[in-house]
Amino acid sequence: MFHHIKELQYNAKPTKPDPVYAKKLQEVLGGQYGEITVMMQYLFQGWNCRGDQKYRDMLLDIGTEEIAHVEMLANMIAQLLDGAPAKEQDAAAQDPVIESVLGGMNPQHMIVSGLGAKPDDSAGYPWNARYTIGSGNLLADFRANLNAESQGRLQVVRLYESTTDPGVRDMLSFLIARDTMHQNQWMAAIEELEQTQKALVPSTFPQENEKQEVSYSFMNFSKGEESAQGRWANGPSYDGQGTFEYVATPEAMGQVPILNPAPAYIHGTPVNGSIPPDTGTSAFDKS
């Protein structure tokens, strides 16, 4: 059960309207690594968590906080759109750089949402639930969460650098700080899980069932051998179960694939000019 209070988690008030910047800010609201994504990702991971209750509680803590971040960004975008008639878009487009990159404000901010935020990215693409990851394996999910927070913090920092509005920067500085905490949080949780299970996901699969002769082989499939200098090519493997080896010229290990001719009802290309025998039935005739 959720309760809403009127106060925002942190201030979200720009110094002045900026409809073009509002379009940019949509990315960290409804983009692939935006706040809606991490909100939904953490909440569903928490609701579906079947493991230790401390992880469930932690996921619901951070997921609920992300709802607050969505609210902050939505309010900030709405205020950046205050008093933004169509002429603002035309004025912004007079700058050839802005025109080529942004083309002025997002017209849907006026036409569709009535000067309000939308669950879209900065290009107007709607937020998609396929951005979220929730596998039921906490180690796999927490690594995905670390990536989401890393990409999200990077994008917010870039947005911070692209505005001089003190109010916007103040809110973004708060979000950046929370992303600092969240990256550290996921790294701590990942380290804790790795101490109680193998570093590989899933840790429950018997390794003898995999083709172990290639389990720790780094294969050189591009021109040059600079990759041989990496930690991944020499020495003990990260999971402690093997030794990395560098394969400079990997060889094909499989067969030459030769497919059987398609039956007549497919009407494919005849092999060597021959026509496959007509079975008298098609796939649709079979029950």
Automatic annotation (TrEMBL):
- Keyword field: Calcium, Manganese, Metal-binding
Family in the record:
Belongs to the manganese catalase family.
Citing just one GO molecular function, the answer is: metal ion binding
Q: Can you name the source organism?
A: Lentibacillus halodurans
Cofactor(s) needed for function: Mn(2+); Ca(2+)
| Cofactor remark | Binds 2 manganese ions per subunit. Binds 1 Ca(2+) ion per subunit.
Record protein name field:
Mn-containing catalase
Q: Where does Ca(2+) bind?
A: D57, D61, N220, S222, G224
Q: Which residues bind Mn(2+) 1?
A: E35, H69, E149, H182
The family database entries (SUPFAM superfamilies) matched by this protein are listed as: Ferritin-like
For the ligand (Mn(2+) 2), the binding residues are E66
